[in-house]
Specification:
Radius of gyration: 38 Å
Mean pLDDT: 76
Order of helices and strands: HHHHHHHH
Largest sheet: none
Strand content: under 5%
Helix content: 55-70%
Shape: elongated
Number of strands: 0
């Protein structure tokens, strides 16, 4: 018996390295969908078996074999979901999966509803990505500090022009010095009167 097959490296790492990030996102999201569909189907089967035990009073589940994949995606629906998955940027793959799991936990859906919730989660993540991209595009469009600092008036105002009267003219006039406190003697230069 040869040990050579056991000592070889698997072919998967080289194949994974050649895949693009978009393909990896697509595969990851579709695997998540199929896994959640299987889980929903298992839970649905458990609920129906629990209901059967209550009605008959006896448990004959050991006699029945578990049916395999009662619900499957239609080819058209699968292509539509793959198209939406392909539009998800790689950095939003994790948030898409988290949002999908959150929707599943909130509703505990039937198997037929899982694909609809998956599509909803993907559209929410795509909308969030679009809004963030739009916000980044707007901030890149303006110079540092945003649009408020980018405003520059075309006309210059010269506050020291002689023909412009200002409110501060009263302040600019020379005012007599304030009187000293009573405890201090007042020293003034003698006037030439």
């Amino acid at each position: 018996m040869s040990l050579l097959p056991w000592l070889r490296w698997p072919e998967a790492p080289t194949r994974l390295a050649a895949r693009s990030p978009a393909e990896m996102v697509l595969d990851t999201l579709m695997m998540e969908l199929l896994g959640q569909m299987r889980e929903a189907e298992r839970q649905q089967r458990q609920r129906s078996q629990a209901g059967g035990k209550v009605h008959t009073g006896a448990d004959y589940s050991w006699l029945a074999s578990a049916p395999r994949s009662a619900y499957d995606l239609s080819p058209g629906e699968r292509l539509q979901l793959e198209d939406v998955c392909a539009r998800v940027p790689p950095c939003y793959c994790g948030p898409a999966i988290l949002r999908f799991r959150q929707l599943l936990a909130e509703r505990e859906p039937e198997v037929q509803e899982v694909a609809r919730l998956f599509r909803t989660a993907l559209h929410e993540v795509l909308e969030r990505a679009r809004r963030e991209e739009e916000a980044q595009r707007l901030t890149r469009q303006w110079p540092r500090g945003g649009p408020a600092l980018a405003y520059r008036p075309r006309a210059r105002i010269a506050p020291f022009a002689p023909d412009i009267r200002t409110i501060s003219e009263d302040v600019e006039r020379v005012a007599p010095p304030p009187p000293r406190a009573w405890s201090m003697p007042e020293f003034r230069a003698p006037h030439d009167d």
